[in-house]
Write a structure and sequence with these properties.
Helix content is about 40%, strand content about 15%. The chain is α/β, with parallel strands linked by helices and about 450 residues long. The strands form 3 sheets. It has a 7-stranded mixed β-sheet with strand order 4-10-9-8-7-5-6, sandwiched between helices. The chain has a 4-stranded mixed β-sheet with strand order 1-2-3-13.
Length: about 450
């Protein structure tokens, strides 16, 4: 096979027969062969173009085939393709310097990984070593990775197959902050942000809590945005009880929410910040676990018990420098903030038109469109259990129709994630939202 021309159909079939499709029932997986990508578009083997309306997995923030980042990969390979993490390299020093420019103030010590998943694993180990405590509090509407510890801290159904992962890894779950559909049946603002009080109740009663991990803006589980009071209150609670705060900025970071990092919206200063995805715009796999100096000082005279072969891999670090410089040159963080009102207005107009839309929410170029069978009850068309059991999903029916119209749209259980590359034009935004508009009738017909 390798010595002959392979057709798009053969490539898709060979992939299907020899690879696992992630987070899905296998028998229905028919992967589309993507041969090329450029700007905000991906291109299949037949030459058909698709608007990348969710930046793949909300990671291709810079768009595809940026010349400077592409060249930086080759430059780094020519200079130094690999050396172990015990050594200093120019790429490591230059990226560390750039990170100090853009990361939130006070985050200044770095451990480089190859994904957000293993960056979270590092964060858990650091938190436990520093505090001498064991438990991690996470939230139910959350995703933190797929390895043993990070999936144990994941609140959504991707954890279920691994149970009792949470128990084995000393993770306990708090309610998410979701003012649209509160899990503890309160109504903001009259609730006094009761969900954060619940976290304090957990800390007091669990007694052995090292840290709480959270996505400042929840990602695939719905682009959930806390009210202004939430994080200041949580910071005060954690300080009072000696609990570290781990901000998972894997998805919401790197300009996606109209700030370099989403926690900047609340002026929050976490103890540990974890990120990946947009740090290289996914051109190469890189993650980062970054801490305050106070945490770093703990290890000056104590053993830092973590590491792996690919930590600070030069080929992952060089392109990260180029990515940050390109984001600065193109003013992409500011661009995401400037385009936010345009996207919001377009999506709110859809909500007025389609009774199946229960909520529209977002910041920057990071929005969710929530579908419901009934706006009053906020009942979704599908559940987490439906997803695990491989049942047909209404959002996937709609996204399938959008794909046929040339728009690649991320859908998860009951909502769509609108998160195009930060270089997107208004014309491309219109193209994507118009495709969603055309096919929401599938859900409208099912509204009670």
């Amino acid at each position: 096979m390798s010595d002959t021309l392979i057709t798009p159909e053969q490539i898709s079939s060979l992939t299907r027969d020899t690879n696992y499709g992630t987070w899905r029932v296998q028998k229905t997986w028919k992967p589309l062969y993507i041969a090329d990508a450029e700007g905000c578009w991906i291109i299949d083997g037949a030459g058909k173009k698709y608007l990348d309306f969710s930046s793949q997995l909300m990671c291709s923030n810079l768009g595809h085939k940026n010349p400077r980042v592409v060249e930086s990969i080759a430059e780094q390979a020519r200079q130094l393709a690999f050396v172990g993490p015990v050594y200093a390299t120019e790429a490591r020093a230059r990226l560390s310097e750039k990170l100090l420019e853009v990361l939130p103030e006070g985050i200044e010590k770095f451990f480089f990984t190859t994904s957000g998943t293993d960056a979270n694993e590092a964060a858990f180990k650091i938190a436990r070593m520093v505090t001498g405590k064991n438990k991690i509090i996470s939230r139910y509407r959350s995703y933190h990775g797929s390895t043993a510890g990070s999936v144990a801290a994941t609140g959504d159904p991707r954890r279920w197959a691994m149970e009792p992962a949470g128990k084995l890894h000393n993770v306990v779950f708090a309610p998410e902050v979701n003012c649209y559909d509160c899990p503890i049946k309160h109504t903001y603002p009259g609730c006094g942000v009761a969900c954060v009080d619940y976290v304090e109740h957990m800390i007091k009663n669990e007694s052995d809590v090292a840290a709480i991990i959270f996505e400042p803006i929840v990602g695939t589980n719905g682009v959930l945005i806390p009210p202004p009071e939430y994080f200041p209150r949580l910071r005060e609670i954690c300080d009072r009880h000696g609990v570290l705060m781990i901000a998972d900025e894997v998805m919401a970071g790197w300009g996606r929410a109209g700030k370099w990092f989403s926690i900047n919206h609340w002026n929050l200063k976490p103890d540990i910040l974890v990120t990946a995805k947009g740090i290289t715009s996914a051109y190469v796999p890189l993650g980062l676990c970054a801490t305050t100096k106070k945490i770093a000082d703990h290890f000056e005279d104590r053993y830092f018990s973590h590491g792996h072969t690919y930590e600070a891999h030069p080929i992952t670090l060089g392109p990260a420098v180029a990515t940050i410089e390109e984001m600065q040159r193109l003013n992409l963080v500011e661009r995401a903030a400037e385009l936010e009102p345009y996207v919001r207005q377009k999506l709110e107009a859809l909500k007025e038109k389609h009774p199946s839309i229960g909520d529209v929410r977002g910041l920057g170029l990071f929005f969710a469109v929530e579908l419901v069978t009934n706006r009053k009850t906020k009942q979704p068309f599908n559940t987490m259990r439906d997803k695990v059991e491989g049942k047909p999903m209404v959002v996937e029916q709609i996204s399938g129709k959008m794909m046929a119209d040339g728009v690649a749209q991320q859908a998860w259980i009951s909502h769509f994630v609108i998160a195009p590359p930060l270089i997107v034009t208004k014309e491309e935004i219109d193209f994507g939202i118009d495709a969603l508009d055309r096919h929401l009738g599938i859900a409208d017909a099912l509204v009670e």
